[in-house]
Amino acid sequence: MIKSKLEYIWLDGTAPTQGLRSKTKIVSNFSGNVEDCPMWCFDGSSTQQAEGHSSDCLLKPVACFPDPARTNGYLVMTEVLNPDGTPHITNGRALIDDDDNDFWFGFEQEYFLWNPSANLPFGFPEAGYPRPQGPYYCSVGATNAYGREIIEEHLDLCLEAGINVEGINAEVATGQWEFQVFSKGAKSAGDQVWIARYLLERTAEKYGLSVNWHPKPVKGDWNGSGMHANFSNSTLREAGSKDVYDVICQAFEPVKHEHIEVYGADNHQRLTGAHETQSIDKFSYGVSDRGASIRIPIGTVENGWRGWLEDRRPASNADPYKVAGRIIKTVKTAEVAVMQ
């Protein structure tokens, strides 16, 4: 009889930014398939998801990955349900309208490695500031890149777990990094981002560091952290028409506030119109424009207007489920106009 460790992972009820929670279930002769992960429960009163007098919340397994850091271990992403089996109010995944996986998403997850004892980015001196931005982006060397062993370990763990990480790089600010995750299917993309975040938190924990997901943890002339959302569906991949792209992009402007509501807390500190961002109260789109709300990649244009779009507004602390769900809703609304 083989005993397996199933790490059930879920999003809590912390506001305005949900956090990760997890606990281990030991099962016998586990197949490795998500269909064979049993439903479980937890104390919602301890995660701001229930009252003490009725505290049970359910965990519904939705994705399962091997856990390369544990013997016979698995990482189980779950949705939080109410006791009657309906989605909990904190469950953004259940709201995604993409059952046919027609939407493809690539998320560019930026973050800071953080020194919790000094409350500063990893690589910052405890007094004063490092050199200004410039040498850190895609950098190499001990005076430019900080925490590479953590980043490399995280990358290996993600790949061994089956997370479709498509790349990593050092970012513009000291101690700032990025990884990119792609998946065909919005729910799968969200699952993989959350598991990758979990693995990063756990890896940094080994080194006495934390991960700061705030969109602007260092004030002043330092880049904030985003989670750019690259997306497409059949319409965008097969359009062959600039007019179709214009209709879809223009559909985002009337609902810009609805998007910002789910694009991460404190995003106004990042979306200022500086540091490769558009102002939070404005909307724009353009070809190869990294200062726009939505960038049309040059590759899409060169491919005859067949490709994808990049929404540059989501913050690093945004929930990829909610970001994807809102983008899908807007694109589907625009498609009605395209068909007319």
Automatic annotation (TrEMBL):
SMART domains, sorted: Gln-synt_C
UniProt xrefs under InterPro entries: Gln_synt_N (IPR008147), Gln_synt_N_sf (IPR036651), Gln_synth/guanido_kin_cat_dom (IPR014746), Gln_synth_cat_dom (IPR008146), Gln_synth_gly_rich_site (IPR027303), Gln_synth_N_conserv_site (IPR027302), Glutamine_Synthetase (IPR050292)
Parts forming coiled coils: none
Gene3D superfamilies: Glutamine synthetase, N-terminal domain, Glutamine synthetase/guanido kinase, catalytic domain
GO terms under biological process: glutamine biosynthetic process
Reported function: Catalyzes the ATP-dependent biosynthesis of glutamine from glutamate and ammonia.
Family: Belongs to the glutamine synthetase family.
Name of the protein in question: Glutamine synthetase
